[in-house]
UniProtKB/TrEMBL annotation:
Domain named Pecanex C-terminal: residues: 864-1018
Record region (Disordered): 656-676
Subcellular location: Membrane
Gene: PCNX4
InterPro entries xref list: Pecanex (IPR039797), Pecanex_C (IPR007735)
Membrane-spanning intervals of the chain: 39-64, 70-94, 140-159, 165-192, 213-232, 244-270, 291-308, 314-336, 365-386, 398-414, 453-473
Name listed for the protein in its UniProt record: Pecanex-like protein
Record carries keyword Ribonucleoprotein: no
Membrane topology: Multi-pass membrane protein
Organism, scientific name: Odocoileus virginianus
Main location: membrane
Record's keyword terms, sorted: Membrane, Transmembrane, Transmembrane helix
Family statement: Belongs to the pecanex family.
Amino acid sequence: MSPDVPLLNDYKQDFFLKRFPQTVLGGPRLKLGYCAPPYIYVNQIVLFLMPWVLGGIGTLLYQLGILEDYYAAALSGGLMLFTAFVIQFTSSYARNKSVTVERMLTTDILAEEDEHEFTDCAGAETIKFLIPGKKHTANVVFHSVLAGLLCGLGTWYLLPNRITLLYGSVGGTVVLFVFGWMTLCIGEYSLIVNTPTESATFQTQDAYEITPLMRPVYIFFFVSVDLAHRFMVNIPALEQMNQILHILFIFLPFFWALGTLPPPDALFLWAVEQVLEFGLGGSSMSTHLRLLIMFIISAGTAVASYFIPSTVGVVLFMTGLGFLLSLNLSEMVLVFKHGVTRHRVGTKSNALSSGSEILFTWREYLFYSIVLVLALLETGLLHHFASFSQISKNSPQAVVGYTLMILFIILWILKEIQSVYIFGIFRNPFYPKDVQTVTLFLEKQTKLMKIGVVRRILINLVSPFAMIAFLSLDSSLQRLHSVSVSIGFTRAFRMVWQNTETALLETVIVAAVHLLSSSADMWWSRSLDTGIKLLLGLELQETSCHTAEARRVDEVFESAFEQEEYVKLCSINEHFGNVLTPCTVLPVKLYSDARNVLSGIIDSHDNLKEFKGDLVKVLLWILVQYCSRRSGMLENAHKTENKGKSSLIILPALNTEPQTESPEDTDSLNSENLDDWSDDVFDEEPTIKKGKDEKDQLKVLPGINLPIPGSVESQDIGSHSTNTVTEESLYQAVALGYPAIDKGKQEAMAYIPLMEFSCSHSHLLSLPEEWMSNCLPKSKVKEMSSLFPEDWYQFILRQLECFPSKENASNVEEIAKDRVLKDLYVHTVMTCYFSLFGVDNMIPSPGHILRVYSGVLPWSLALDWLTEKPDLFQLALKAFRYTLKLMIDKASLGPVEDFKELINCLEEYESDWYIGLVSDEKWKEAVLQEKPYLFSLGYDPNMGVYTGRVLTLQELLIHVGKLNAEAVRGQWANLSWELLYATNDDEERYSIQAHPLLLRNLTVQAADPPLGYPIYSSKPLHIHLV
């Protein structure tokens, strides 16, 4: 930090010297940055002193004995009301009369935005400058009436005779009268003439014109105390308060200017929050609406307890409501409604996940219910059967008090043992010294973890029930219809659960005071924590200030957690005075991001050639795994229907009479000029140009070529059917498509024979019925069937575990010999294989690999057949991605030795990897599910290379520390004043210069926008303690 950096630069100093006097005086702009006519200053002085003149008329008539004090106040208030309406109507008339004048451009922008052109003393521009007016018509009436009331009550408040009666001094009366009227004039000017910029700003935009009410609100408060003193005599405390407030009244302008007193909207919310926390035992709320709702409920609880006639009923009511109000009811209700909604409308795919979430929620509800019932039983039984007497050394309440004291000491010791520093000064000898590795740290922290579990049980379960016992035995509860009991014990029974540690400290203090003074009356007051944490992320770009403070943060943590073994056991904290205090180290799961260039792998001819062979194997393995899992889900549903019956399936005829390939088929399969799909490797994000998402268009009927319904040919459909097959199973639809196929060559695909499995267990691995349709010529299917790996198919079946263990071997052998089942897999696997590589059965190019990996398939006869089956399409795409990952692993780690190693590799992909695109929604889900590894393929157009991105989940040790709360609040308060009032947004201003002790730059950056600029700000995180 440079010592020459000023608090405000030269321009902001001039700006501040103009704005601050305006704030002190309540709005008059007596210091301008340019030369203005004298009448501008004279008019402002006249408007400023107008309330004093009008109030002086009433004061003079009262002092002369012409009018009573209240009549004099009413006269002054009426005159001020009339004057306020005249001022507002004059401003409105000037705004309507003025016209827009185009000014000449000047080079001095700063002077231009602050200058005004005045023509005469009562001109429209002059009036608009002096009296800007109100935004809303309602405020014109409301503020004018308020100004009249303020002037009348102010006249009554500052009557000289009244001040003399309070102090008995003429000199004091003169001082208070003169400066008191100055305060009133400041309040009136800001209300009806021109509102200054307040140094205490709660909202950046004042849409409802609340800021003009700030100063009158505090004046009314001072006047209200004087009125109470007038009508409630013989109260010495009230008289003393009135005397003190009369003196403070003349200092109100300085309190307003220095930002000591908050605006009325902030004052109201702050007062409600303080009453909720200190008086009713609640905690801070995250929104204004929640604050008001919780305040009303908490106040209603205290009021309701006042009218309960039974002491047992009062205790049970306070205990139950205290426990319920300490819970986050809004979150629990939302989770419950969300779980019920998902349970009602959820699909089979998300049944398991939603079920587990609902199970967890019900477990939490059950725990809360049990704790509530036990607390009510304990409170009711103790209060009903125990004897009540003043606390003494041998009374039941005293015994519980001693127990609480011992429990408090134990919890304090256990808390300090778990922290790295005791009292923030001495290093904890039980805390691990070297915590650089996760494994070593977890081994050394095992004992501390056990201590933490014991402490958590004592805090969450033992301490609340012990404090409930102490409260239930208090003799003060015998006094019904007592305000102190209703408020004090309602707060106490709630704080037992809301903030157990704070409540335990307060209960111990109360017990000690009871034992020492034998006094049963005690007021409970203690602030609470919110229980809601917020994660902030700082900007990525480091500056010199960031570097200096970040270096100090590293030093603070290193001195605490990275010590040598030979260092003495109880060392001193070298950074005791720093705003940051180290607490502990937590192992956190994070993803490491590695990006690799795949040049030499994805463009290798040998690798791409092996890729085609591996794709068939991976695709077959994925389909078999899918069908085996699917059969387990459907087995119970079909057990009764299929019992004693043989399985009939619709199977494409693979082994029929040979047929020569038609010229149309050959031409369409070898076509090179396709507009739907291009192999431009320089497109990083390939897209499908048509066909996939066009839901309103008719597509090619998958697997069946039928005549148009209603024609003569449609009468022949039933001739190829049996009694067990209906017309619906033949997928009746309009057969349209591209390219056109000769009608004479269609007959070989139209006939679908009915065949049955030779093994009774083959239905466990049968493919879905909608996948059995045909879309390719028989010649093409027969040609590709030679690529089917028979030995790999047999090996996969022998690895299955979907059969009973005793019959596994025999069942697998029978299924492996089932020719029908094998032909079914040959047809489905090879059709998917054909659709992934398109019309060219050549070695794929790297661009082809990238496009298909991204979900963009080339055009082929099987494209529509595959895309119309979403499940099969996703399985084929998954197999393609697995094969690519397998190709990269084989090129990097070496070839796969045998089938067993290949299955182990695929099972690892299935369980530990997510292989897809970064832009996929499932990528985000995999990160949230903490998948160990994530892989994505990409292309860098700048370098012209293909890249692979791998995320690896690993545990790292994260240092956790706490900042001094008051230091942070002070810096943020100064930041608000500096940016909103002084408008000092200089990037090199003094307040954001590096300060290693206060961490000023980092703290300022972490403030909420728009004051701060964190790169990331999380939603409130609810931390469950159960």
